[in-house]
Structure formats: C-alpha cells, structure tokens
Design goal:
It is a single chain. By secondary structure, the chain is of the alpha/beta class. The chain contains 9 helices and 10 strands. A 5-stranded parallel beta sheet has the order 2-1-3-4-5, sandwiched between helices. The longest helix has 28 residues. The N and C termini lie far apart (about 95 Å).
C-alpha cells in the first residue's frame, strides 16, 4: 500500500469512529426517556447543589446537569428549568442591571430571556446574610434589585421546599414572587381598633418566623419600628391571616 492510500485508509477509519461516537452520543440523549433538562447553575460546588444534582425525586422527571462541570458550555434552550445557587450580591447587581459579563451571570440572564423556570434557594441569596448589619437604605436598594428578579419570574424558595416547588408546577404562596409592596398604613385611632390582641416586635429585620412566633387567632396587629424592614414572606404571612402591620 503506497503512502497516499495509507493516509486515505487512516482518515476513513477515523471518520468512521467519529461517526460511531456521535451516534452513541445521540443514543445516550434519546435514552433519557425524553426527559426535560434541569440545569444546576452555580459558581462553586457545595453539598446543597450536589444534593439537587443527585436527587432521585428530580431525576424521575428531569435530566439533571451541572453548568460548572460543563464549564458553562451549555445551551439554555436545552433546559426547562434552572436552579440558581450562589446568588452573591455581585451576581444580583449584575443580573438586575443587565450587565452579565461572567459565565455564571450570562447563563442566568439567558434563562431569564428565554422564559425558563428559575428557582433560587432562599439560603443561597447572599444579601440576606447582611440583613442585620447593612444600612437600611443600602439594603432596600439591593432588595429592590431582588424584587426586580422576582417580577421577572425568578422564584426564591426555602431550600426545604425547593424540590416540591420544582416538581409541582405550581409554586406555593411562600415561594411565589412577591406582589408589589402595599402603601404604608397609618396607625389606626384607638376607637377604630378591632377587639383583639396586639404585639410589638422590636427587630430591624422581621421575617415570617417572627410573625408566626407571636401569631394566634386573637392577634389583630403587630407594631414594628418605623425603620424596621419586613421580608416579603412576613408581609404575606400577616396579610393572609388578617394581621395588620403598624409602623410606629
């Protein structure tokens, strides 16, 4: 066999192997039973994101992938839903500002632009870690950016209920994007108060858990400081139970 014939033979064999590999790859994709894709989008690996990636419940319905393992070389159109971990303050401001110049934020932005289901564990939102230390005005500014993401379809949900929210197709009230904050209500005059019990919570950041701790059927109002900040879940919890929030 002359040199040219040998080269042709080698090229033909390599081409055949590449074609076989492509067919095998397609077969693997088809073997996923046509499951929709669920992308785990994170900036660094951790136990929580691994638990989502390896969740048997999620794998019954979804084909799960990790963007970090794929070095962010993912087509967002291949996925039905995205779980967003490590929502740092930096990532939050980039996403809300539309300046997504990192692989992590670029994929997250693509998920929003394509209308994908996007879930963020509440514990993965870095902003909440500074609730007790950050000045109120600065915290509110960042909270407004988080609200913008919620209004764009991003669902922030406690990690304990994340799988249920993803699989149910219906997000429970506690996990739903919050509605616009209602206008502040002036403290009612004494004669206008309903009969019932009132409580005062003297905290800077008031959560759903704080309201739940003082709630019973007789509770009609919770008094908070003028500079206190209520989380969206705290407002929803109080409103759903007919409890007025009174700022003093």
């Amino acid at each position: 066999m002359d040199f040219n014939a040998l080269v042709d033979e080698i090229v033909a064999r390599v081409a055949a192997k590449m074609e076989a590999a492509e067919d095998a790859c397609c077969s693997c994709t088809e073997a996923a039973d046509g499951k929709p894709g669920l992308l785990i989008l994170t900036q660094e690996h951790g136990n929580v994101c691994h638990s989502m990636l390896d969740s048997k419940r999620l794998q019954e319905y979804y084909r799960t992938d990790c963007a970090l393992v794929k070095e962010y070389q993912c087509e967002i159109t291949d996925y039905e839903a995205v779980i967003l971990f490590d929502l740092t303050v930096d990532a939050l401001t980039r996403l809300a500002g539309g300046v997504c110049d990192t692989p992590f934020t670029a994929l997250a932005q693509q998920a929003i632009l394509h209308g994908k289901k996007i879930f963020v564990p509440q514990e993965a939102v870095e902003l909440f870690q500074y609730a007790e230390t950050v000045p109120s005005a600065y915290y509110q500014m960042l909270l407004d950016k988080l609200t913008l993401l919620k209004e764009s379809g991003v669902v922030i949900c406690p990690a304990v209920g994340l799988e249920d929210a993803i699989l149910s197709g219906e997000v429970k009230t506690a996990c739903a994007p919050a509605a616009a904050e209602p206008p502040k209500q002036a403290a009612p005059a004494p004669e206008a108060k309903k009969a019932g019990r009132e409580e005062t919570i003297s905290k800077r950041i008031i959560t759903e858990r704080d309201i739940a701790a003082v709630y019973d059927r007789d509770l009609t109002a919770v008094h908070v400081g003028e500079r206190s900040i209520l989380t969206d879940l705290a407002r929803e919890y109080a409103a759903s139970r007919g409890v007025a929030i009174v700022k003093e």
